[in-house]
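Exam revision sheet. Question 4 asks you to relate a sequence to its structure. Input first:
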Amino acid sequence: MNISIVIPTYNRPDHLERLLKSIEQQTHKGYEVIVVHDGPVISKAYESVIDNFTKIFKEFIFVCNESNHGAPFSRNRGIRIARYELLALVDDDDEWLPEKLDNQEKAFKDNSNKLGLVYTWTDVVENGKQLPFYRGEYAGQCLGQILNSCFIPSPSVMVRKRAILEAGLFDETLPSCQDWDMWTRICEKGYEVQAIKRTLTLYHKHAENSIGTSKNANIGYKMYYRKHFWKLVRYGELRHIVRLVRLSVGI
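Answer key, structure tokens:
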């Protein structure tokens, strides 16, 4: 099965180069690479990276947005361009280990069309050290579990394009929690998820990864909670409901 790899990028040619090198090393070779730059102008460094990998990959698409719209917009643009049913979503500052695509493609091949999303274990790399990070094991119908916590690491996701289109693509109005919202809506559509219990993805932590403590993070959480409020009530997620109240009153 062929795979469309969708990568939003902005102002980080060195990170993008590292990711593309890890894609080149994948044992599964049936893929196209779609890179969406979130702006109309690219640097000389970007030009060099793009020129190099245009020669390396058989199917390589690079497009620029007319202006800066953010990662969800860029991701959605790449998804619309994608030719294949399986989508591998990843940010430019992440990295894959060589058997990542092979393991996930096999999971889709061996399961029914009800399987909508496959994720893998993910380690964090900080100050040159690789440490265990995401170790989710949930599988099957997981709406209750995903409402409880976002256990799916976004750099590891392979998903059916059909599932994302049915769920309505990434919500471009959310300043944070876009991934959590997307996985929630896919689960709500009745799609099953599966975990590959192997570390196949690396999440590189750096100064730009600070969204979790920013004002935008709290706005995103509040918008997520309001969007999915009645599901949170139905599944008894009191912790999140209390947090919504606290965020709403500024506590």
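Marking note for examiners. Residues 44-56 form the longest helix (13 residues).
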